[in-house]
């Protein structure tokens, strides 16, 4: 089992370009797994973790409902945003500046073969990170992502999640609002869940801006611990 994860910092990158890149990494792992099986080889499969920030974009998952996007193509263009239907689970999600987006492209055969556990671990990475800022983040039964004040009229989502997996290889991941422009969430019904608010770390802390690199370091620390993994920087 290979518990090394190649960490790639992509900076700000177009959603479709990043999606295509994810697909290429995802396919390369799948192809190697198939080759291992066919040729009775035991070649190590790689793992990747991409950190990225996207320009304004709305994405709709496989089971999503188009009616959850509340603006048309003309209005999207006016807001400088794009829209894509994607092959992850979940409904509609927004990505944009001020978010930390993490895409773990892992061969779970290197860790554990349990998608439910994988999703719970991703949530736990976020929950533990937010705890370091004094926030009590939680899961909300039947609703994806990570939330604050679950079970109250003030419940609000701070991190969205959606993944795809095939032959235990994962792609897509999480989007944590750190310094996000929350106005963009008004143009959709987040994850198809009506009547629930969205928030951002800087809003919760009453700060103009939170240090994104500091948050990333905390995310990496908790990810490494939970997955018993080691990050290596792309050369």
What does this structure look like?
Strand 7 (137-140) and strand 8 (143-148) form a beta hairpin. The chain is an alpha/beta fold and 235 residues long. Helix content is 29%, strand content 30%. Helix 3 (115-131) crosses helix 5 (212-227). The protein has helices spanning 15-38, 73-78, 115-131, 201-205, 212-227, and strands spanning 4-12, 48-53, 57-60, 82-85, 92-95, 99-105, 137-140, 143-148, 156-166, 169-177, 197-198, 230-233. The strands form two sheets. Strands 1, 2, 6, 7, 8, 9, 10, 11 and 12 form a nine-stranded mixed beta sheet that branches. The protein has a three-stranded mixed beta sheet with strand order 4-3-5. It has a single domain (4-233), classed as BirA Bifunctional Protein, domain 2, CATH 3.30.930.10. It contains five helices and twelve strands. The two termini are 22 Å apart.
- N- to C-terminal separation? 22 Å
Strand content: 25-35%
CATH class: Alpha Beta
Task: Provide the succession of SSEs.
Answer: EHEEHEEEHEEEEEHHE
Active site: 191
InterPro entries: aa-tRNA-synth_II/BPL/LPL (IPR045864), BPL_LPL_catalytic (IPR004143), Octanoyltransferase (IPR000544), Octanoyltransferase_CS (IPR020605)
Pathway: Protein modification; protein lipoylation via endogenous pathway; protein N(6)-(lipoyl)lysine from octanoyl-[acyl-carrier-protein]: step 1/2
Domain BPL/LPL catalytic: 43-231
């Amino acid at each position: 089992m290979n518990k090394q994860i190649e960490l790639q910092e992509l900076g700000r990158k177009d959603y479709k370009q990043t999606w295509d890149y994810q697909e290429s990494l995802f396919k390369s792992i799948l192809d190697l797994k198939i080759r291992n099986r066919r040729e009775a080889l035991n070649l190590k499969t790689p793992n990747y973790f991409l950190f990225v920030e996207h320009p304004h974009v709305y994405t709709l998952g496989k089971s999503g409902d188009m009616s959850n996007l509340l603006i048309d193509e003309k209005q999207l263009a006016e807001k400088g945003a794009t829209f894509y239907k994607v092959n992850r689970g979940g409904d509609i999600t927004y990505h944009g500046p001020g978010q930390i987006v993490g895409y773990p492209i892992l061969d779970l055969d290197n860790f554990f073969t349990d998608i439910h556990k994988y999703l719970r671990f991703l949530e736990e990475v976020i929950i533990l990170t937010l705890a370091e800022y004094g926030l009590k983040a939680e899961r909300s039964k039947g609703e994806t992502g990570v939330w604050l004040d679950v079970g109250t009229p003030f419940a609000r989502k701070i991190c969205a999640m959606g993944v795809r997996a095939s032959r235990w290889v994962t792609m897509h991941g999480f989007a944590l609002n750190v310094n996000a422009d929350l106005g963009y969430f008004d143009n959709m019904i987040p994850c198809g869940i009506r009547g629930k608010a969205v928030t951002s770390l800087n809003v919760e802390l009453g700060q103009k801006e939170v240090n994104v690199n500091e948050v990333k370091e905390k995310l990496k620390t908790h990810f490494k611990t939970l997955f018993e993994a080691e990050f290596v920087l792309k050369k």
